[in-house]
Amino acid sequence: GKNVSELNLAEAALLAGLIQRPARTEPQTHPEVARDRRNVVIDKMLELGWIEASDAEQARASPITLADQTPLSDQARYPYFTEEVKRRLLDDPALGATATDRYDALFRGGLKIYTTIDPIMQETAEAAIADVMGGEEPSAGLVSIDPRTGHVLAIVGGKDFYDPEDPNAQFNLATQGRRQPGSAFKPFVLAAALESGIELDTIVRGGQRVSIDTPSGPWVVKNYNDSVFPDLSVLEATVFSVNVIYARLMDQVGPALVAEIAMSAGITQELLPYHSLALGAQEVSVLDMASAYTTFAASGNHVEPIFVTRIENSSGAVIYSPKPVVTQALPRSVADRVTQALTEVVRRGTGQQARIGRVTAGKTGTSQNNSDAWFVGYTPELVTAVWVGFPDGQIPLTAPRTPYTITGGTWPAQIWSRYASAALAGVPYGELATAQDDGMVTVEVDLSTGFLAGPYCPRSSVQRLRLPRDAAPTVVCPIHNPAGITAVGATATPDVVGFSLEDAALLLLDQGFDVRIEWVRIDNLATGTVFNMSPPAGSDAQIGTIVKLSVAGETPTDSVAAVLGFPLEEARARLFGFEVQVFLLAEENPSDAARRSGLVWKQAPASGTPGADVVTLWVNP
Questions:
Q1: What's the number of domains the chain is made of?
Q2: Where would I find the H helices in 298-429?
């Protein structure tokens, strides 16, 4: 540094210009703003007669020359987290009555501050984002919280806090940024509906689009990709994120109740009671979304986020020890039923790429113009919100800016999966409420037409749905129907070419067929993709017929998959790729049989065991 006596006119004016708004005029990150502010000071000095015109002209023409940037040894290891801690403490009256008192206490008081950060989880979060996104241009924000304590364990607020080329590098995208959460906001509508007496099995009218009268005029809502959904239960509408049905739910319960519930759950931003809130049209932070979902994970209890556990002064005395602020934000029955629905989102809905081998709940979100993509997921031990987008504005996450169209079910869910699977490694499984589907049947619907899918419907438009028996469509799609089929043929083999092995096996088993697998190494297909089947799709076949699937990849030698908490048929499908013999034991789990009927509650050998030839599954009858 320099002594004050060594400063020239331009340098002195630069420093004087920083005083009013140091963050906005800091020359390292805002050189042009700093230069303009410096020149304002020089002009004022000239106006007051403190300097000569020639000196002013020379000072204005001087370039800004700065010392080298902070060396790496002096940089904070986890800057987004530590800067958020500083920002919060500078606003906390516990450290002093005035802003000056708090600043002096924080930076000159010799304090020792103990935070909630988990360094391993923090580094895991950063690695998960780097692994999934690589060097791609969008940014990501991530916040991870323990829902039992409110402790904030990890924050990723941007790519590189110390990037001299990025003027916004030190803006925390996870805590200071606010973006539209899209369908990740639907759980708050669901909570409002359940609190109003609507049930998960309540049937709501579907369709392709709907127009709803609101105080500000008609609100027109359509489904993603213009999909046509039949009448669905609230559960299925949540699993497949059906906008039309959620618009109807919002109109039924009212936006004021939804806003109230979301803010009680942990959204700190004031929410306006507009119908569009149902689809996440108002901006929120990543921190707030993680905090609000802790309410679902903790069965309705909300603990305000905690960043600091205690502060000691220079003598070692504890001067700050915040107590958790806990509120009952939702009735337990409501929160647990939201969780029941969100476990299905991950198990078989839009959040399947977030599966980690244990029961997980979560919701995807994608803003209307694809500029924001979210996944917020949880187990009883961990809640994590992930946002992906361009920090500079509402820029669509579509090609050529991204390799393909990014939605909440792609990069955000993949980041969440990589992070959570590593963060929870070795953590005993907790229990989440899971959905019961009594009286439901599984059918395939062609979402481009709304009819029951036939063997010739394009697989990209076909979705397997769980519907009440009396609400399931019975007419096979007449649009994609060259064979003239008019009713469901129990012996028609479904087309599973292009499916993942797990999904193909699950569909075939669900329709009464047996499955055999042939692994074939093919370089241009993703491992686990079905590329041929025998007999072919649409063939007449008896129930129990063996369908042989040709699957891309080497014969697996990996350790056995985790299937605890899965329905029996899905558990069998997950194990197909490991070429193991499965034995079944119908035996009640003494502690939880009634609530988890039909689900696997024990497996031997345990998941992760390499080289197993036989796997035994215990299933609640």
A1: 3
A2: 332-348, 411-423
- Cis amide linkage into residue 535, ω under 30° from 0: yes
Give the whole-angstrom CA distance, residue 334 versus residue 350. Answer: 22
3-state class (DSSP) for residue 558: coil
Residue-level pLDDT at 491 = 55
Listed residue (618, 143, 47) closest to 386, CA to CA? 143
Of 415, 414, 427, the C-alpha closest to 382 is 427
Per-residue pLDDT tens over the stretch 344-397: 999 989 999 999 988 899 999 999 889 999 999 999 999 999 999 999 889 999
Domain hosting residue 602, numbered range = 559-621
The last residue of one of the domains, among 46, 61, 76, is 61
Q: Give pTM, 2 decimals.
A: 0.65
> Are 551 and 567 found together in one domain?
no
Strand partners, 465: 443
Burial of 316 (0-12, 13-18, 19+ CB in 10 A): exposed
What pLDDT does residue 372 have? 97
Give me the numbers of helices (H) and strands (E) for the chain, helices first please. 16, 22
Q: Check if the beta carbon of residue 180 is closer than 8 Å to that of residue 165.
A: no
Q: CB of 59 within 8 A of CB of 13?
A: yes
Greatest C-alpha distance within the chain = 100
Which of the listed residues 525, 540, 555 is the one where a domain comes to its end? 555
Shared domain for 52 and 24, answered yes or no, is: yes
Contacts for 318-327: CB closer than 8 Å, 24+ residues apart:
319/111, 320/94, 320/95, 322/94, 324/149, 324/150, 325/150, 326/301, 326/302, 327/264, 327/301, 327/302
* Contact criterion met (CB below 8 Å) for 286 and 174: yes
Kindly state the helix (H) or strand (E) to which residue 617 belongs, with its residue range: strand 614-619
CATH assignment of the domain containing 525: 3.30.10.20
pLDDT tens digits, 179-206: 999 999 999 999 999 999 999 999 999 9
CA distance 619 to 147: 30
Q: Which residues pair with 614 in a beta bridge?
A: 581
Residue linked to tokens 């509650």: 601
One domain, residues 547 and 586: no
DSSP-based helix, strand, coil % in the chain, nearest 5: 35, 20, 45
Inside any domain, residue 328: no
CB atoms within 10 A of CB 588: 15
pLDDT digits (tens, 9 = 90+) for 545-560: 778 889 888 776 555 6
Low-confidence ranges of the chain (pLDDT < 50): 72-73, 437-438, 483-490
For residues 13 and 52, state if they share a domain.
Answer: yes
Beta-carbon count within 10 A of 391 CB? 18
* Contact assessment for residue 22 and residue 103, using Cβ atoms and an 8 Å cutoff: no
Task: Report yes or no on 563 lying in a domain.
Answer: yes
Q: Is the dihedral of CA 24, 25, 26, 30 positive or negative?
A: positive
Backbone phi, psi, residue 356, to 5°:
-130, 15
pLDDT score for 590: 56
Rounded CA-CA distance 45/53 in Å is 10
Establish if 442 belongs to a structural domain: no
Kindly give the residue spans of alpha helices, DSSP state H, lying in 468-530. 501-510
Residue 517 structure tokens = 């697998």
> Is residue 182 assigned to a domain?
no
pLDDT at 331: 93
